[in-house]
């Protein structure tokens, strides 16, 4: 029998809470480089690809073989910038949370690409073999505005000192492949009492989070 929330409901223009943890609850981010590589994978898949004329580049005698190989890899690299918007994320030592908007039904392809790419890096670095994550990623459909807002707060409060998209929400950092405006548009930029930062300060409301619980 399939685990709860391992079977995804594919809906276009819908929001999903996504989660996965290390197999046997093991650490999946052991140092800063690991966090950076995972974020780099997100950037690769969620940033629009450059318009590359591969035959012209390969025929360019001024480019080194390494530059041509990099261009070839980029040309064939899968990309989900037109089908997945990442609203927020947080990374902990043994698990991660993502909140996405699926524009087209490619969430499964996106998550498989992300997981495969990171596991290859991790296993190569730490000289290990086999799965890193605890089975198939878990995903839950977010079907109300209240759930969406409270979930973003839950994700950001989960990771105050580790990598998260909170700086994008507080205006401290701009990242092109993170889309905070879909949530920030519910809040005021001029009235501090109605700001997202004030909303964070109110703490978690687990009555909303329990409606979109992910089975560990």
What does this structure look like?
The protein is globular, with a radius of gyration of 19 Å. It is built from 9 helices and 4 strands; from the N terminus they run βαααββαβααααα. A 4-stranded antiparallel beta sheet has the order 2-3-1-4. It has helices spanning 32-46, 54-59, 65-76, 107-126, 145-158, 166-169, 181-184, 196-201, 206-209; strands at 14-21, 84-91, 95-102, 138-142. The chain has a single domain (14-212), classed as Transposase IS200-like (Alpha-Beta Plaits). GO terms for molecular function: DNA binding; transposase activity. This is Transposase IS200-like domain-containing protein. It comes from Candidatus Woesebacteria bacterium RIFOXYA1_FULL_43_9. Residues 11-158 form the Transposase IS200-like domain.
SSE topology sketch:
Blueprint: E1 14-21, H1 32-46, H2 54-59, H3 65-76, E2 84-91, E3 95-102, H4 107-126, E4 138-142, H5 145-158, H6 166-169, H7 181-184, H8 196-201, H9 206-209
Antiparallel strand pairs: 1-3, 1-4, 2-3
Helix pairs in contact: 1-4
Domain Transposase IS200-like: 11-158
Organism: Candidatus Woesebacteria bacterium RIFOXYA1_FULL_43_9
Pfam families: Y1_Tnp
